[in-house]
Design brief:
The protein is an alpha/beta fold. 34% of the residues lie in helices and 19% in strands.
Length: 243
């Protein structure tokens, strides 16, 4: 299921068309393009945050449970032994059902820890159980975070469940704007360890086209309550993410 966001989608489409036009393309310098892209992304973020605020916690939880069922049915998940998963903020896709599934299935679980707000750096550290996660202290944005003395998951994870304020059927993703996942995914894709990137989202946050540039990582899969979308070849089949 894809819910059209006409304002941001049309703006992005118009910007791309203008840049390809032989006369207008000269007007759009790299700096102007970047600024216009930021403006379009911020407008879409505002719209989708408003959508999330309008949804009840119960509806978000029910939709998130449906995504956990879809994840459980994927052979890539069933064959995995180590999974990375974010910890939810209020009024966001609820990862509790995903975490319950991961631990119930006896898989290793890695969750984010912010290492530097200024540099938008994070790591993925191992959590032992739901009880372990429930005991984490609150960090940036009131999200529970593990302490630093834990195993790091960059070379352990086979799947990484990725948050976002918007996704599309081509694997495009738009985050909250802080850049933590953009930088982390950029580092991960340079590693020898090949990780399947799975965007998890709500139907209400699916759009026809996410505004993005060449630095934005594409997902291999996008899961919502209404759809399981295989975007790119599975990296474990010999195709490195981004190829």
């Amino acid at each position: 299921m894809c819910i059209r966001d006409s304002s941001s989608g049309e703006q992005w489409g118009m910007l791309l068309s203008s840049c390809r036009h032989p006369r207008l393309s000269r007007v759009f310098t790299a700096a102007a393009m970047a600024e216009q892209l930021r403006s379009i992304k911020n407008a879409l973020r505002k719209t989708h945050r408003s959508k999330l605020r309008s949804m009840s916690d119960e509806d978000i939880l029910e939709a998130s449970r449906a995504v956990a069922v879809r994840l459980s049915e994927m052979p890539e998940y069933q064959q995995s032994t180590a999974v990375g998963c974010f910890l939810s903020m209020p009024k966001e896709f609820n990862t509790r059902p995903l975490l319950e599934l991961i631990f119930q299935d006896g898989k290793r679980c890695f969750v984010p820890r912010v290492e530097s707000v200024e540099s938008s750096l994070m790591s993925m550290l191992e959590a032992e159980s739901l009880r372990d996660i429930d005991g984490f202290e609150r960090g940036a944005w009131d999200i529970p975070e593990p302490r630093s003395h834990r195993a790091e998951g960059s070379n352990e994870m086979e799947l990484l469940l990725v948050p976002g304020l918007a996704f599309d059927r081509a694997g495009g993703r738009m985050g909250q704007g802080a850049g933590f996942y953009d930088r982390y995914l950029g580092r991960v894709e340079k590693n020898d360890k090949l990780i399947t990137l799975i965007g998890v989202t709500l139907d209400e946050l699916m759009v026809e086209q996410v505004p993005r540039d060449e630095f934005d990582s594409l997902m291999h899969w996008v899961l919502s309550p209404g759809s399981t979308i295989n975007v790119r070849p599975h990296p474990h089949m010999g195709v490195k993410p981004g190829a």
